[in-house]
């Protein structure tokens, strides 16, 4: 291929995948690929997959199926990355003959070489786990992306082995990036116009704990908070077991740290939490929530809930509902349990019937919908500082986020994108708020 080449990336799953996709775009820029939002014009389509959700492999195979006919109509390359690629490896190439390359979560660095090979007609899969030193050097950096907000990966992998979760198998063990490098990256990003960073990791709370002499996560937040010109800091995800009193204190101490935390409980029953290998009890979880609310009044708490975990009785499930009511989450991600290959829970007895699981999921979602609507209604009449991120999907309004991570749509000049503005909230919807611009900060 010659001339300008276009790259289309379809990203599924978590923010770690979004961050990996940014890295893919940056890596392939050096190979002459410019990003496009139009898959039908792309010379290279990368599908960045996630294996956390139910039937993930099946969905990826069926998604890839749609490219079979397209490949006959025009010439383009097709690649698959992410967690399903890590899990399936060569099998993907064998089962999908029109696929050109497969790269795992540890092999992003090989991508330029693999794409060059694919351009010459060579199909390759690279899904090896690599050593920690190499991994450290390959941490996604986002220096080249534009905009006022930036994801910054601070650690990767997980040592927790929750019994349902595939992450430790597809992302590997925890490893933390050096704090000096993170701070420098954020300083450079701020100099380039970034005003908000979101620090990413599967379990940011254990940042630095395995590296002698390294800062803790709370220490890292304090260092980042001292960067002039940076206005907001967010982070995700936080394991409730590992959130320390020092980290909770940061919410009281650091005004730049946004008033939002994603703290996944997963279940409200001690029996299920134990079987999930979560490492905390219901009471311990609620004590941490109370400490966070005391440290930062008005903090928005979001979470994850799994229903239908093996052995979950109606009584266990009712405890999940009551936990949700006690916490009063702003919003949650809710999942019906599905066994993932290699995980401990895949072998557990006591499968909950699909119908019952679905019914529990419906009840969880109904309760949360009511709580979210109530929470959003509570903002009507208040004035919120909003960092403007772009044009809304309908294209006729701006959108941005409050300090508590709520999405606000409002009318305004696109020149405000990237600015912090004050917005008076006029209406609450189930997924967002509507407001009126008052002042530009
Ligand atoms: S903490 Fe548990 S759920 Fe989260 S990534 Fe690690 S193993 Fe998975």
Automatic annotation (TrEMBL):
Binding site for [4Fe-4S] cluster 2: 158, 162, 165
Residue span(s) of domain TRAM: 377-439
Domain Radical SAM core: 144-374
Keyword Nucleus attached: no
Subcellular location, record wording: Cytoplasm
Catalyzed reaction equations: N(6)-dimethylallyladenosine(37) in tRNA + (sulfur carrier)-SH + AH2 + 2 S-adenosyl-L-methionine = 2-methylsulfanyl-N(6)-dimethylallyladenosine(37) in tRNA + (sulfur carrier)-H + 5'-deoxyadenosine + L-methionine + A + S-adenosyl-L-homocysteine + 2 H(+)
Protein's UniProt keywords contain tRNA processing: yes
EC number of this enzyme: 2.8.4.3
Swiss-Prot/TrEMBL keywords: 4Fe-4S, Cytoplasm, Iron, Iron-sulfur, Metal-binding, S-adenosyl-L-methionine, Transferase, tRNA processing
Cofactor: binding comment: Binds 2 [4Fe-4S] clusters. One cluster is coordinated with 3 cysteines and an exchangeable S-adenosyl-L-methionine.
Residues that bind [4Fe-4S] cluster 1: 14, 50, 83
SMART domains for this protein: Elp3
Cofactor names: [4Fe-4S] cluster
CDD domains per the UniProt record, alphabetical: Radical_SAM
Pfam families for the chain: Radical_SAM, TRAM, UPF0004
GO MF annotation: an example: 4 iron, 4 sulfur cluster binding
GO cellular component: cytosol
Residues in MTTase N-terminal domain copies: 5-120
Family named by the database record: Belongs to the methylthiotransferase family. MiaB subfamily.
UniProt cross-references to HAMAP family, sorted A to Z: tRNA_metthiotr_MiaB (MF_01864)
Role, per record: Catalyzes the methylthiolation of N6-(dimethylallyl)adenosine (i(6)A), leading to the formation of 2-methylthio-N6-(dimethylallyl)adenosine (ms(2)i(6)A) at position 37 in tRNAs that read codons beginning with uridine.
Record's subunit section: Monomer.
Protein name, per record: tRNA-2-methylthio-N(6)-dimethylallyladenosine synthase
Organism classification: Bacteria, Pseudomonadati, Thermodesulfobacteriota, Desulfuromonadia, Geobacterales
This protein's encoding gene: miaB
């Amino acid at each position: 291929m010659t001339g300008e080449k276009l790259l289309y990336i379809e990203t599924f799953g978590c923010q770690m995948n979004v961050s990996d996709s940014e890295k893919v775009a940056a890596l392939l820029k050096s190979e002459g690929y410019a990003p496009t939002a139009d898959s039908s014009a792309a010379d290279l389509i990368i599908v960045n997959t996630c294996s956390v959700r139910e039937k993930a492999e099946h969905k990826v195979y069926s998604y890839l199926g749609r490219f079979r006919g397209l490949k006959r109509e025009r010439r383009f390359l097709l690649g698959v990355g992410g967690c399903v690629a890590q899990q399936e490896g060569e099998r993907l190439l064998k089962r999908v003959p029109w696929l050109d390359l497969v790269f795992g979560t540890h092999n992003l660095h090989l991508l330029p070489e693999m794409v060059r090979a694919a351009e010459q007609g060579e199909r390759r899969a690279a899904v090896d786990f690599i050593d920690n030193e190499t991994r450290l050097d390959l941490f996604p950096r986002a220096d080249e992306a534009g905009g006022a907000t930036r994801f910054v990966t601070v650690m990767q992998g997980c040592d927790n082995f929750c019994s349902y979760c595939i992450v430790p198998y597809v992302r590997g063990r925890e490893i933390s990036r050096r704090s000096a490098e993170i701070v420098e990256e954020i300083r450079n990003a701020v100099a380039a116009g970034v005003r908000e960073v979101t620090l990413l990791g599967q379990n940011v709370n254990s940042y630095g704990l395995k590296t002698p002499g390294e800062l803790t996560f709370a220490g890292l937040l304090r260092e980042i908070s001292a960067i002039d010109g940076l206005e907001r800091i967010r982070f995700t995800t936080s394991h409730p077991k590992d959130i320390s009193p020092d980290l909770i204190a940061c919410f009281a101490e650091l005004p730049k740290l946004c008033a939002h935390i994603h703290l996944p409980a997963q279940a409200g029953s001690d029996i299920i939490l134990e079987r999930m290998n979560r490492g905390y009890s219901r009471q311990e979880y609620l004590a941490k929530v109370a400490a966070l609310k005391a440290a930062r009044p008005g903090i928005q708490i979001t979470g994850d809930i799994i229903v239908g975990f093996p052995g979950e009785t109606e009584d266990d499930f009712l405890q999940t509902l009551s936990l949700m009511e006690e916490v009063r989450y702003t919003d949650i991600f809710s999942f019906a349990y599905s066994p993932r290959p290699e995980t401990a829970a895949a072998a557990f007895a006591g499968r909950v019937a699909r119908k019952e699981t679905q019914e529990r999921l419906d009840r969880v979602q109904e309760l949360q919908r009511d709580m979210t609507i109530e929470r959003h209604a509570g903002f009507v009449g208040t004035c919120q500082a909003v960092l403007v991120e772009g044009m809304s999907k309908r294209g006729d309004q701006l959108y941005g986020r409050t300090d508590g991570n709520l999405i606000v749509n409002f009318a305004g000049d696109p020149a405000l994108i990237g600015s912090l503005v004050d917005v008076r909230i006029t209406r609450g919807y189930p997924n967002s708020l509507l407001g009126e611009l008052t002042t530009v900060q």
